[in-house]
Amino acid sequence: MTAVQVETWDDCEGEMSMEEGHGPSWEAFINHLAEDSFEGKSLLDFGCNRGGFLRALYKRKPFAKALGVDIALDSVQDAEARKGNIPAEYKHNDALADYKGAFDFAFSHEVVYLIPDLKAHAQEIYDALKPGGVYYVAIGEYTDNPLWERWYKTVSEFSPVAPQNYSLQDMAEAFGESGFDVSVRRLVCDGFLPYDYTDKKYLLSPMELVQFMTEYMMLFRLEKRA
Fold it and tell me: Taking the chain, what is the end-to-end CA distance rounded to the nearest angstrom?
């Protein structure tokens, strides 16, 4: 799949804020992974933004090497500049076509709902994984989420990529039909959750925040059939 190429996703301040806001769900994501270790493994972060997820993962579960891809060129450049000593490189999405059967594991966090062709994406990840490889997909933006109808309008106003109205069933079917065994669970964020009471776009009350982070976030584990 050839992604739309854009110079930037959002302003730098907005992206940094988004990265900070994703911290609790990244930690929950890592806590929920079935694997105890990624020692010696090759990883893909699809929709890497500014590289925060791979940096967080490496602190908890070091890996041999990783590739992060994103459609936003400034995000890729910033991720590369901020990677420190982790064994990762960051490229535009289009580079993924050169990595056939290269990865043991792939990850995406709050990305799939922006992909216009879900089956093409499933095939793209299938081709990038080794036999038996696993794709973890964290997602909160889907039609089964009662907050999504309102959020869809908000995302549509600022996103350079149009959001899609996928259900959880749509995602399960797309990946299942593309050669993955599908399993799923809630992604439950524990502990205290930072709440921005000035945000009038998404979470309009502390209750909505807690419900979203403990009930509506979902985590798919998609294992490529050998």
Answer: 22
Q: What integer pLDDT is reported at residue 110 of this predicted model? A: 96
CA distances, 191 to each of 25, 147, 150, 187, 214 (Å): 11, 22, 26, 13, 10
Whether the CA torsion 81, 121, 116, 114 is positive or negative: it is negative
pLDDT at 226: 78
Distance CA 162, CA 117 (A): 12
3-state helix, strand, coil in the chain (%, to 5): 40, 25, 35
Q: Please give the pLDDT value at position 160.
A: 87
Whether 166 contacts 118, CB under 8 Å: yes
- Please report the pLDDT score of residue 200 as a whole number: 86
Asked whether 168 and 142 are in contact (CB, 8 A), the reply is yes
What are the strands, taking DSSP E only, across the chain? 38-46, 63-70, 88-92, 103-109, 129-139, 180-186, 218-224
Q: What is the pLDDT of residue 20?
A: 59
Residue pair 181/131 in contact by the 8 Å Cβ criterion: no
pLDDT at residue 55, as a whole number: 97
Mind listing the domains of the chain with CATH numbers?
12-224 (3.40.50.150)
3-state secondary structure of 121: helix
**Low-confidence spans in the chain with pLDDT less than 70:** 1-21
Dihedral sign for Cα 80, 94, 6, 144, please. negative
pTM for this entry: 0.91
Q: Rounded CA gap, 212 and 216, in Å? A: 5
